[in-house]
User: Which sequence fits this backbone?
């Protein structure tokens, strides 16, 4: 734009100057007849004038061509700039432009105490649309989502597409948290309405994470990271909902990252990872087995509980390695106690691996332990997502010789019909059922599970028995076995050996 404005004035002034000079020369010649110099001038001025006019004509032609060229260059430059800063498919801002605007907004926040919110959005079930209706429909969906988002925002807000089905919004000057929440809710409502894609209807949802930076806000990248963490929280909370960022979330994510790094190291070196063993007893109090439980003490992170480690291992692809470590260690310990069964917990992801029976079988053989001594504990959550496949997996493991126990039975996913459908060797009733503060429903459920279990020739044991009252509930209901701190907490391998010796000497003395 600037070039044409700059070039115009010199050429216009040159033309004006030529015309003025020509008029001046004509007037002078007419006034000074008889002067020899002027006579010469009179002879050549028509040629000079013609040349000047020709020059002006050529120059104006050149000028207009140049103007055209400059215009074209300017247009191309604008198009290139737009392309560099916008998403091709939707025409929305792209990540670099978003970051640029975010940094400008953050400057205003720091300087004037202005307010701003950043929202990270990720569509739910986008993959399903792509898979079932095709990529062209997926593209249409993304475009329509962009349109819907734009229609919810003000001129001063920015909406950007920052990935396949990921969007981000800069909400300018929200008055308070309520404003941000309202926008999130409107987005979820708008995206939840059906889309028509090439004549077919599709429904998706959206998970939203929002963050409102304070005056101490860092840069755009940091803010995007926080919005992303929050969005994943919304996804984990069941999708199609929003969350606002809190510092605790950040601490949790940092801790998770530290656990991942430390776990990689620990699996490489084997340092700090260990198993403890908790006794399992029959209804008469004789020890029949042990459950192997993961223990991990890290020099900087302290004791990291299995409930924290296992999900991290699943998320970062370390579960096979961790599972193999646990299984091998448990087999080695089992070898020292050949009369006891050894229970090993399998995580859901580990359980779903196709080659699992073969792999476990091989490790047990390498460690010189028979599969019949090993009991694999799986949880019922598996049945919810993989009901069909589960029957096959369980029967494969059982036909390889392993016993299979259903862990945490009664924790919300339970259905007594599962017991009829999936043949297992043992049911472990969750310790929440023994909550003696609210005993009535727990006892009724325990009694029902014992009845169904026994009808299926399945052993039923009560877990987390911590006192005599709970023991009474379990035994009165007809449980075949018990496990819990009342008998022994999880013990190191050496301490468990000592515990067994004490138990057997007491029995001998009795
Ligand atoms: P779980 O399989 O239900 O294991 C029993 C949990 O209850 C253990 O917690 C045990 O220490 C605890 N417990 C036992 N008796 C009592 C009691 O009387 N009172 C109370 N309050 N608690 C009792 P832990 O070791 O923290 O393990 C928690 C969960 O982590 C386990 O629940 C299991 O799901 C998982 N886990 C533990 N070790 C492993 C492992 O090696 N592999 C996998 N995949 N998961 C494991
Ligand atoms: Ca267990
Ligand atoms: Ca359990």
Assistant:
């Amino acid at each position: 734009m600037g070039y044409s404005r700059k070039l115009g004035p010199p050429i216009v002034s040159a033309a004006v100057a030529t015309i003025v000079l020509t008029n001046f020369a004509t007037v002078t010649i007419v006034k000074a007849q008889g002067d020899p110099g002027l006579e010469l001038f009179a002879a050549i001025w028509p040629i000079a004038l013609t040349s000047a006019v020709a020059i002006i004509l050529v120059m104006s032609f050149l000028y207009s061509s140049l103007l055209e060229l400059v215009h074209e260059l300017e247009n191309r430059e604008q198009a290139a700039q737009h392309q560099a800063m916008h998403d091709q498919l939707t025409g929305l801002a792209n990540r670099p432009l978003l970051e640029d605007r975010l940094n400008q907004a953050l400057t205003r926040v720091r300087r004037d105490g202005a307010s701003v919110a950043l929202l990270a959005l990720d569509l739910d079930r986008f993959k399903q649309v792509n898979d079932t209706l095709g990529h062209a429909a997926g593209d249409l969906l993304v475009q329509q989502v962009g349109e819907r988002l734009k229609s919810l925002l003000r001129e001063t807000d920015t909406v950007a597409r920052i990935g396949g089905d990921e969007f981000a919004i800069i909400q300018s000057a929200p008055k308070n948290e309520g404003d941000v929440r309202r926008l999130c809710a409107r987005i979820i409502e708008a995206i939840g309405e059906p889309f028509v894609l090439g004549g077919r209807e599709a429904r998706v949802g959206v998970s939203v994470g929002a963050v409102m930076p304070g005056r101490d806000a860092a840069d755009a990248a940091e803010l995007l990271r926080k919005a992303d963490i929050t969005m994943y929280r919304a996804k984990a909370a069941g999708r199609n909902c929003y969350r606002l960022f809190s510092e605790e979330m950040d601490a949790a994510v940092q801790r998770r990252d530290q656990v991942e790094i430390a776990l990689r190291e620990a699996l490489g070196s084997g340092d700090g990872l260990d198993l403890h063993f908790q006794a399992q007893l029959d209804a008469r109090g004789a020890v029949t087995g042990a459950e192997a439980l993961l223990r991990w003490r890290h020099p900087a992170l302290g004791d990291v509980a299995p409930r924290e480690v296992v999900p991290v291992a699943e998320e970062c692809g370390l579960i096979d390695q961790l599972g193999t470590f646990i299984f091998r260690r448990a087999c080695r310990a089992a070898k020292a106690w050949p009369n006891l069964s050894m229970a090993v917990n399998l995580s859901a992801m580990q359980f779903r691996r196709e080659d699992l029976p073969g792999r476990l079988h091989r490790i047990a053989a390498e460690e010189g332990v028979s599969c019949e001594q090993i009991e694999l504990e799986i949880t019922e959550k598996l049945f919810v997502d993989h009901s069909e496949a589960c029957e096959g997996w369980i029967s494969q493991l059982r036909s390889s010789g392993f016993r299979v126990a259903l862990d945490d039975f009664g924790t919300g996913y339970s259905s007594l019909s599962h017991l009829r459908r999936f043949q297992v060797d043992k049911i472990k009733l969750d310790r929440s059922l023994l909550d003696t503060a609210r005993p009535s429903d727990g006892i009724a459920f325990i009694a029902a599970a014992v009845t169904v279990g026994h009808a299926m020739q399945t052993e039923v044991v009560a877990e987390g028995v911590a006192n005599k009252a709970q023991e009474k509930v379990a035994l009165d209901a007809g449980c075949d076995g018990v496990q819990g701190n009342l008998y022994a907490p999880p013990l190191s391998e050496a301490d468990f050996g000592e515990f067994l010796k004490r138990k057997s000497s007491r029995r001998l003395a009795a």
